[in-house]
Amino acid sequence: MGKFSRSFLIAAALVALPLFANESVPKHIDWNTLADVVFKEKYYAQTKEWYLFPNFSDNVKNLDGKYVRIKGYVIPLDVDNDIYALSAYPFAACFFCGGAGPESVISLKFAGKPKKYKTDQVVTFAGKLKLNDKDINEFNYILQETKEWK
What we know:
Layout: H1 3-21, E1 27-28, H2 31-34, E2 37-44, E3 49-56, H3 58-61, E4 67-78, E5 83-87, E6 105-110, E7 122-131, E8 141-148
Parallel strand pairs: 1-4, 6-8
Antiparallel strand pairs: 2-3, 4-5, 4-7, 5-6, 7-8
């Protein structure tokens, strides 16, 4: 291989390296992005109750199944069973207290056993975003394979 060919290959590898490195970096999203949803009440016959069902915008739909990261307030739901949510707002103003909508909370499904998080601890998490517009027993946003992002 000639000197020119070797130099060209090295230069091409150096240019391509950042492209491959970015594949493992989750896309940063924020709560404003997730707020791009419209809710409509629908009657759920099994429970004989009305629920808010989301109609996600195209921008939000494009995030479904994507590796993302988002910063928010941790809301422990059941610490003994490692069930946590991430909220756009602290506990006193979050969805559970009636101060915010369902678009402001994400269910965290950890990849492994998580460390113990405290209420209102501000943390950035990464994982695969799943949109939920059918299961009333889950949040509308679910972060699968969740890991803390540093």
